[in-house]
Amino acid sequence: MADSTELPAHSAAAATVSPVPNSPLDPFWVKWERLRDDRHLQDLVEDDINRSIAIRAQIQAEVDRAFGHTTTLLNVLLGVLTALPILAAVSIWFIRRSVINQIIGETKRQIQEEVDQQLEAEVAIELKQQTAAFQQRVEQLEVEFQAQLSQLKSLFSDAQREKDQIIQELAQITPSPIRDSATPEAKEKIHALTRQLEQLKSTNSQLSFTANDYVEQGKALYFENRYEEAIACYDKAIQMEPENAKAWLSRGAILAKLQQYEPAIAAYDRALQVKPDGSEAWFGRGTVLAKLQRFDEAIAAYDKAIQLKPDSSLAWFGKARCQAIQGHHELSLAALQQAIHFNCDRCKEMAKTDTAFEPLRDQAAFQELVG
Predict the structure, then answer these.
(1) Using N-to-C axis directions, what is the helix angle for 295-308 and 313-326, rounded to 10°?
(2) Where does residue 340 rank: exposed (0-12), middle (13-18), buried (19+ CB within 10 A)?
(3) What string of pLDDT tens digits covers the 371 residues of the chain?
(4) In this structure, are residues 359 and 329 in contact, taking their beta carbons and an 8 Å threshold?
(5) Is residue 369 within 8 Å of residue 333, measured between CB atoms?
(6) Sign of CA dihedral 358, 363, 366, 368
(7) DSSP secondary-structure letter at 176?
(8) Count of C-beta atoms within a 10 Å radius of residue 51
(9) 3-state secondary structure string across 45-57
(10) Which one of 69, 176, 210, 293 is separated from 285 by 20 to 30 angstroms, measured CA to CA?
């Protein structure tokens, strides 16, 4: 509106100015006058001025709005810039904390690795030392063990030799159980050797015995009247060697001593199966048959023993007894004469006290034989 009021004043001022006559600017002023008097043109000018004012107002509004936005952005930016140091400080604190934790973790890991390595090295050294000490101890123990083993072997060998020597002595002084006779001196020696063998066995449980060793030990126990122990020895020998004729023979003699006649005959028969030419087994069988009063069978067994061993005084004596009991006096005297011929003193003494010869005692021939 200020611009529209100025225009009439400008126009009035212009109207007061008179053009210079005959000036080259006359056409311009003429045109100017025309344009000034042109109402349409004035309207256009006013419209343009109004539009210019509106545009300026719009521009001013846009400028104000832009300025407001700018101010807001500046405020926001200012706030951000204000908060930025705090955020930066917080971020730096977190970053620093994270870095510190990472450094601490890495340091711990390195320290742990170093500790583990050092520990492994120390453990390896300790283990190596212990292994060396253990190896040395093992070698020492091995040497000691070998020495002890050698000593034990030596002791065992000595014990084994002592056992063999005892068994050999027993075999030399112990008569056959079939004969059932041993001098008091022999019995005393048998007893001493038996005790020595038992002590040796108690201190050397690993002693090895053969079947014949058990037979000889059983014979010694027989003459000590330890019959059950003797049978146990014979059973061990038979278990080791079922075909051991000596074991069966000695077992039969003990069973006969215990008056177990039928088992005794079975044992003698088993011995004769193994060794048919065993004169002692035939003699023992005849003696048991005579106890059972089976005199004919007993005489047949004695004859078999005499056939195998003609100088068997006990077989001749046993046959004489059976014949005397049967009443065959002449045959009995003939058999008794043979027995006395091969073992004079013993057979004479036995004939004097044996009740089987009672029917012959008054005969001169008998008295002459035993006199």
Answers:
(1) 160
(2) buried
(3) 444 444 443 444 444 444 444 455 566 667 767 766 667 767 776 776 777 777 777 767 775 776 676 667 667 666 655 666 676 666 666 766 776 677 777 777 777 777 677 777 776 787 788 878 878 887 887 778 677 766 666 666 888 999 999 999 999 988 888 766 778 898 899 999 999 999 998 888 888 999 999 999 999 999 999 999 999 999 999 999 999 999 999 999 999 999 999 999 999 999 999 999 999 999 999 999 999 999 999 999 999 999 999 999 999 999 999 999 999 999 999 999 999 999 999 999 999 999 999 999 999 999 999 98
(4) yes
(5) yes
(6) positive
(7) P
(8) 10
(9) HHHHHHHHHHHHH
(10) 210
> Which of left, alpha, beta for 204 (phi over 0: left; psi -120 to 50: alpha)?
beta
Length of the chain: 371
In angstroms, the first-to-last Cα distance of the chain is 201
- For residues 191 and 223, give the distance between their C-alpha atoms in angstroms, rounded to a whole number: 9
215, 193 Cβ separation under 8 angstroms: no
> Rounded to an integer, what distance in angstroms lies between the CA atom of residue 163 and that of residue 247?
19
Distance of CA 262 to the CA centre of its chain: 53
AA letter at 194: T
Exposure letters 94-115 (e unless 16+ CB within 10 A, then b) = eeeeeeeeeeeeeeeeeeeeee
- Whether the predicted model's global pTM rises above the 0.85 cut: no
Tell me the Cα Rg of the chain. Answer: 74
Tokens 């030392």 belong to which residue? Answer: 129
Residue 157: DSSP 8-state: H
